[in-house]
Amino acid sequence: MRRWVFTFLFILWLTLVTASSLLSLQGVDLDGVYLPFGDKGAHFIFYAGAMLLAMLALWERVSARIPFKKAALWAFGVLFLYGLSIEGLQAVMHMGRTAQAMDVVANTLGLTGGLASAKVVFHALRWLNWKH
Fold first, then answer.
1. 3-class DSSP state for residue 124?
2. Domain regions of the chain by residue span
3. How far apart are CA 101 and CA 54, in angstroms?
C-alpha cells in the first residue's frame, strides 16, 4: 500500500503558503502575533518547511527509483520557481501584497535550510532511508 501522509502534508503546506502569500492581510488584527525577523523570517520558515515536506513526499513517491541528490535538485528548482511565481503574482495582482527581491533571498535561504534539515532527518531516522 502506498503512503500518502507526507504528500498530503506537502500539498496542504503549499496551499497555506500560497494563500498567505497572495491574500491581503489588511483588516486582519495581528496584535500579539510575533514573527522573529518579521516577514523575512516567515518566508524562511515557509520555504524551509516546503523543502523538508517536498523531500519527504518525494521519499514516499520516488525514493526507490531516483537518487536523493537528483530528487533534492528537482525539488529545489521547482520550489525556487514557485517562489518566483508567487513574487511575480504579487507584483501584478495588486491585492495589498508587494514583490520584494529580499523575499526571494529569504525563500532561497529557507530552501537551503530545509534541504539541510531533510539530510539530517533522513540520516537520523533509519526507517526513512533513501534507497539510492
1. helix
2. 5-14+39-128
3. 24
Q: Please choose, from the candidates 50, 96, 98, 93, the residue with its C-alpha nearest in 3D space to the C-alpha of residue 75.
A: 50
Q: Is the dihedral of CA 21, 25, 28, 34 positive or negative?
A: positive
Percentage of the chain beyond pLDDT 70 is: 87
HEC letters along 53-116: HHHHHHHHHHCCCCCHHHHHHHHHHHHHHHHHHHHHHHHHHCCCCCCCHHHHHHHHHHHHHHHH
pTM comes to 0.88
Measured CA to CA, the distance from residue 56 to residue 77 in angstroms comes to 16
Name the residue type at position 122.
Answer: F
Among the ranges given (5-14, 20-29, 84-93), the one the predictor scored with the smallest mean pLDDT: 20-29
Q: Phi/psi at 131 (nearest 5 deg)?
A: -70, -25
